[in-house]
Amino acid sequence: MSTSTTLLALLEPGPAYGYTLKQNYDRWFARRRPLAFGQVYSTLARLTRDGLADQVEVESGHGPDRRLYRITAQGVGVVDEWVFAPEPPEASAAGTLHARVTVALLSGRDPADVLARQREAHLTRMRALQAQRRGSTGPELLAVTYELAHLDADLRWIEESGARLGAVREQLVAAREGDDDARG
Amino acid sequence: MSTSTTLLALLEPGPAYGYTLKQNYDRWFARRRPLAFGQVYSTLARLTRDGLADQVEVESGHGPDRRLYRITAQGVGVVDEWVFAPEPPEASAAGTLHARVTVALLSGRDPADVLARQREAHLTRMRALQAQRRGSTGPELLAVTYELAHLDADLRWIEESGARLGAVREQLVAAREGDDDARG
DNA sequence: GGCGACTATACACCAGGCGTATACGCCGAG
DNA sequence: CTCGGCGTATACGCCTGGTGTATAGTCGCC
């Protein structure tokens, strides 16, 4: 939902072609999630079908038809809602790190190793971002800061969890023994 | 990739039916991402096709055929790699909050309002989690702590960004004026 | 005069995800 | 005893999102 709504939002300042839309997208959001040309057109088709955008003009002649898309009033409503509606709770912690640690615990792999490797990768990435941050202003500064904040959150969690792994493992074993589930 | 690998990992302790697999999944990961029954079977089909799992037995007679699935050696390798490989950088900041603030800035909506609403929602959620946390041990404590850490990261970013919004907006307007792009 | 870069779109395909249909057994209410 | 609901178990169809590739004209340049 996020990608299509983002594209829709980029139509708000005025009508645009799929191609220019993609260029604008790259300018602001490529850092967060790269986007293929192909997807722009399928997304525009869906938005049109759903009444959130419409084709204002089809300019034919030189090359392929150029289709000018415009956001509808309904589309503006959707963007509006998306922008201001707080994220639902579960989306806040969507990373896979926690899942990976859980799997390690369940499968007898060493979770401390998982944490250690992730910690190294994060530290490397943070150093790069901190360097980049010093030269940044405006929107880029916002983006860099956002990523740094979440890497930092992961690091704190890594420290805290690392200290607790022993206790967690015991809990888990106990929980499993309470089972007697049907397993071949 | 994460969901299918997670299911695969749950096959490691021993062969299982799709149904029991889903129950096990719910037990450990439902908090993070709910999973429909339907998806379990299509995922198992893909895993089988790709040689990461195979059918060990088809038990027919009472009701629908019960199919027992087993992880293959290759499957174990895939889980192993996934568990220990650090997440790629871009995945760390996958939330939409930053995107929503950017859209607000681009579209003339009030980004401070976006931040304020998200802040309220986060604070509410955090109070609930902190209460839950006091009664938690083991794996659940890990999960709660993980989410809390990321909510906290968002809050810090919200504070920091809020103070900088004026400067960011200027940067953004300047960048746009440097354009003269082909727009309607 | 042909080659590459840029503008512009369409199409086919795959994975992931959601809802619903199907089928059997068991158990309690009436 | 039978009917309906619940638990076990799987299959199927459909949609969204995402990726790659084909197509086609235009422009500049050597």
List the helices and strands and how they pair.
2 copies of one chain form a homodimer.
Chain A: H1 2-10, E1 16-17, H2 18-29, H3 37-49, E2 53-61, E3 63-71, H4 73-84, H5 97-107, H6 111-134, H7 138-177
Antiparallel strand pairs in A: 1-3, 2-3
The structure holds a DNA duplex (30 and 30 nucleotides).
Characteristic key phrases:
homodimer, 184 residues, mainly alpha, Arc Repressor Mutant, subunit A, 2 domains, elongated, disordered C terminus, DNA-binding, WH-like_DNA-bd_sf (chains A, B), Tscrpt_reg_PadR_N (chains A, B), PadR family transcriptional regulator (chains A, B), WH_DNA-bd_sf (chains A, B)
Q: How many domain units of chain A? A: 2
From the N-terminal CA to the C-terminal CA of chain A, the straight-line distance is: 41 Å
Listing every helix as H and every strand as E from the N terminus to the C terminus, the arrangement of chain A reads HEHHEEHHHH
Task: Give a count of the beta strands of chain A, DSSP E runs of length 2 or more.
Answer: 3
Helix content bin of chain A: 55-70%
The helix-and-strand class of chain A reads mainly alpha
Uncertain residue segments of chain A: 180-184
User: How many separate helices of chain A?
Assistant: 7
What is the average per-residue confidence, as pLDDT of chain A, rounded to a whole number?
Answer: 87
Strand content of chain A: 5-15%
Q: Which chains have the largest interface?
A: A-B, 82 and 82 residues
Radius of gyration of chain A (CA) equals: 23 Å
